[in-house]
Amino acid sequence: MATLHYLPPVKPSAIALGAVFSNTAALAVLAPVFGDTYHRAKRADSAEEFIKSREAASAGMAWGSSIIGSCIQSYGVGALINTTGTLSYKGAAYLGSLIFMASAAPGIIAQITLEKRPADQVGIGALSKVIDSVGLAIFLTWWGTRTNPFD
User: Fold this and answer.
1) Model pTM above 0.85
2) CB of 11 within 8 A of CB of 144?
3) Contact of 18 with 140, CB cutoff 8 Å
């Protein structure tokens, strides 16, 4: 039978604040989607009509999945901080850089070499991912992730 005691504990407040941090960083990328949806809502005849629309459903799903993903990511980064014993901001920056290189760098290289995307588009996406990995690790180190700091 599988148990959860193998997973390192992380402060719930760190997970919640990490999710807020990640969503704030991702807002720059998702702002055009929500901004367009907001303008459609203002043009709708009634609030009930907009709520029943496909745009509202897709925006709600994007926002909900973003929050769930941010919570999972915050737990993962917090668990890595705890497991590796990272206590300094420098160590958190290194850890965040490793997370960035493992998760985002291959996609960025593929966007540049295979997909031939414009450099500004790739740069904005890369900056968002750096903030989401390195920034999150530094932020969680500042806030604290350990449930019992004396362990």
Assistant:
1) no
2) yes
3) yes
